[in-house]
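Figure 3 (text version): structure tokens given as input.
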């Protein structure tokens, strides 16, 4: 018989009711989407991820893989921070605008003094802020992100403003700061060292030249941060407290967790990840513009939700978010490969996001009913 009795009171355990990790379902969806786009491309005489050229001894289309990783890396880093916030039971609508503000301020401290032998035409702060050591703009950028996160966390934790309203206010304010900083003008011409942050070869450096992947630093940093946050959320008090608060805030408070302080910390961490994304974005593009980061917050939330992170809080994982980011990237690249117009892409993206939320609600109802 499949049912056995264990524990006090004759509790029944039925192995047939064991639920598989939700990440497996996300992985299956990723594989199915890849297969669908591969078939559609083959019907049109092309290929998606697999190489069809006999002259190239490679299984995969390396160029498309590189583009897909770069597409998802910047927003994926933001999604790692957003994942922590959603698990906590909150939401962050400000990350895209914080990217814009952080990008403008950071690039102002990363500018070179001379461009082709002439003074930098887009200098913002004057000679004292030109050609600074690369650590200066990095620290300035990280401080901007953490500061924005602390403001979000303070209002949410200590004034009890709903996260939606608090982060919506930050979204509007940060975008205003981005436009005000240089009167809407781009800030360009960073130092060579700053430009190498995103365009260098970090993977080759940390593997002592064994693997070389020039220009893919954002993707490498995204994967490294994902591994780090997986360990943090799974094995540290920070992660356990985040899940506890997201599952039942009242119970977490009664168990001795300082809920307000932890919320402040989580939103500061989300701001830190947003700042990292802004630094890599400006380094990759060699410029900062006030409009940077528009809709990034929604893409980051979508990656987390598609990856199985519950908007109700208390459930989800970094692994799921990474898989959700990969699905997001595959969908965008797949639409481009079959030449689907951009507005259709947005429609399908919206449908996928709504579908993921509907599925999450259905899964919660089943869990509540004990199915």
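Below: residues designed for each position.
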């Amino acid at each position: 018989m499949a049912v056995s009795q264990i524990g006090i009171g004759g509790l029944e355990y039925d192995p047939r009711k064991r639920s598989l990790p939700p990440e497996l379902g996300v992985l299956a969806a990723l594989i199915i989407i890849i297969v669908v786009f591969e078939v559609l491309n083959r019907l049109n005489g092309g290929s998606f991820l697999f190489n069809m050229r006999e002259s190239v001894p490679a299984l995969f289309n390396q160029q498309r893989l590189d583009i897909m990783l770069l597409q998802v890396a910047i927003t994926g880093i933001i999604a790692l921070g957003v994942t922590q916030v959603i698990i906590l039971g909150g939401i962050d609508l400000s990350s895209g605008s914080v990217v814009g503000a952080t990008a403008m301020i950071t690039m102002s401290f990363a500018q070179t003094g001379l461009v082709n032998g002439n003074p930098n035409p887009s200098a913002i702060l004057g000679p004292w802020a030109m050609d600074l050591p690369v650590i200066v703009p990095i620290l300035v950028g990280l401080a901007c992100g953490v500061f924005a996160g602390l403001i979000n966390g303070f209002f949410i934790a200590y004034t009890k403003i709903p996260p939606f309203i608090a982060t919506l206010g930050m979204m509007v304010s940060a975008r205003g700061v981005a436009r005000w900083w240089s009167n809407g003008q781009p800030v360009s011409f960073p130092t060579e060292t700053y430009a190498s942050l995103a365009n260098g070869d970090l993977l080759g450096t940390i593997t002592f030249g064994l693997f070389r992947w020039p220009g893919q630093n954002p993707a490498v940093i995204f994967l490294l941060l994902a591994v780090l946050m997986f360990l943090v959320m799974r094995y540290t008090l920070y992660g356990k407290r985040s899940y506890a608060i997201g599952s039942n805030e009242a119970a977490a408070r009664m168990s001795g967790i300082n809920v307000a302080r932890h919320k402040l910390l989580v939103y500061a961490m989300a701001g830190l990840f947003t700042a990292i994304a802004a630094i890599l974005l400006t380094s990759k593009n060699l410029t900062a513009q006030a409009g940077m980061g528009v809709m990034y917050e929604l893409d980051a939330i979508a990656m987390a939700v598609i990856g199985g992170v519950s908007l109700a809080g208390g459930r989800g994982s970094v692994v799921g978010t990474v898989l959700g980011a990969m699905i997001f990237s595959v969908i965008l690249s797949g639409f481009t490969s079959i030449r689907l117009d951009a507005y259709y892409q947005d429609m399908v993206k919206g449908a996928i996001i709504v579908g993921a939320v509907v599925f999450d609600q259905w899964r919660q109802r089943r869990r509540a009913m004990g199915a």
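The two ends are 20 Å apart (CA to CA).
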